[in-house]
């Protein structure tokens, strides 16, 4: 996957993503990150790309021209129909479902705003999607772009090794991940749950599912409500009786 990032702060994005799993994905050629500095398209001798907002108010607004020229420079490489995603608190909230959807694209352009925003006319012309990473305001879209790329790239086949596979983690099937333990077997007087040392894979799987259900029910009741219909469809009657509460197991809630 090739990701173009239009930004005034390319180092913020590059220095973050050239690490760990995303860094390895780039070394392996599974992820290509091309940060393009919007400032390089300024026609001002000092590289200025922003101006005062019409109508007054605090802060500066990024001008349409450098953003549009930067976009056309990238479009020359991608060809038409490349999605352009602007990171903005006004966007659709990012989710694992959206990450899965985007992980099937072979290229995309991310547009990072800064200061008070970008001239609306160029946004209306080029942006296909707005994405927010949550209901709070960052100083710019760069960290949000990093979140997107990190989350999407680990869903690209081959990016995670077997050891790191994306299968049984939080948000798969709307359940949080079960607790994990490693050596030593006893730490500060606390033992690892005995079942994990039993070697009985069927019982271990059942225990993990039980812990996932308990965790999700307690920590993310909203998510648990979404998970419940799937659990009721897929669990055997024995497990439904064992893992669900009677009121969750009745038909009215599904
Ligand atoms: N830019 C500023 N705040 C943001 C947010 N919450 N999500 C995405 N981009 C942003």
Main β-sheet, spatial strand arrangement: 2-1-6-5-7
- List low-confidence stretches: none
The average pLDDT score comes to: 95
Query: What structural class do the secondary elements suggest?
Result: alpha/beta
Bound molecules: adenine
Give the percentage of residues in beta strands.
15-25%
Per the CATH scheme, the topology name of the largest domain is Alpha/beta knot
Q: What's the total number of strands? A: 9
CATH superfamily of the largest domain: SPOUT methyltransferase, trefoil knot domain
Major sheet: size, sense and barrel closure?
5 strands, parallel
The overall number of domains is: 2
Oligomer: single chain
Share in helix = 25-40%
CATH class of the largest domain: Alpha Beta
Briefly say what this structure is:
The chain is 38% helix and 16% strand. By secondary structure, it is of the alpha/beta class.
Textual characterization of the structure:
This protein has 254 residues and is of the alpha/beta class. It folds into 2 domains: 2-153, Alpha/beta knot, CATH 3.40.1280; 186-253, no CATH class. Helices cover 38% and strands 16% of the residues. The strands form 3 sheets. It has a 5-stranded parallel sheet, sandwiched between helices. A two-stranded antiparallel sheet has the order 3-4. It has a two-stranded antiparallel ribbon with strand order 8-9. Strand 8 and strand 9 (190-191) form a beta hairpin. Helix 3 runs parallel beside helix 5 and helix 7 packs antiparallel against helix 8. The mean pLDDT is 95. Adenine binds at residues 87-89, 132-134, 136-138, 141, 144.
């Amino acid at each position: 996957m090739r990701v173009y990032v239009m930004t005034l702060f390319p180092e913020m994005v590059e220095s973050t993503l050239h690490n760990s799993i995303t860094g390895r994905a780039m070394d392996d050629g599974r992820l290509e990150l091309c940060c393009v500095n919007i400032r390089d398209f300024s026609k001002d001798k000092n590289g200025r790309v922003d101006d005062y907002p019409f109508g007054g108010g605090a802060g500066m607004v990024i001008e349409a021209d450098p953003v549009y020229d930067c976009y056309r420079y990238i479009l020359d490489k991608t060809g038409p129909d490349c999605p352009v995603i602007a990171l903005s608190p006004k966007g659709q909230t990012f989710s694992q479902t959206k990450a899965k959807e985007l992980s099937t694209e072979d290229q995309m352009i991310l547009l990072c705003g800064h200061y008070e925003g970008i001239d609306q006319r160029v946004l209306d012309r080029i942006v296909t999607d707005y994405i927010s990473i949550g209901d709070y305001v960052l100083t710019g879209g760069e960290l949000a772009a990093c979140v997107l790329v990190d989350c999407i790239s680990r869903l690209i086949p081959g990016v995670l090794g077997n050891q790191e596979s994306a299968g049984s983690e939080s948000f798969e099937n709307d359940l949080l991940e079960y607790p994990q333990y490693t050596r030593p077997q006893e730490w500060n007087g606390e033992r690892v749950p005995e079942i994990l040392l039993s070697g009985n894979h069927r019982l271990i799987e059942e225990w993990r599912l039980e812990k996932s259900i308990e965790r999700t029910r307690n920590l993310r009741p909203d998510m648990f409500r979404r998970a419940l219909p799937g659990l009721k469809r897929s669990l055997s009657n024995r497990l439904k009786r064992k893992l669900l509460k009677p009121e969750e197991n009745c038909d009215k809630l599904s």
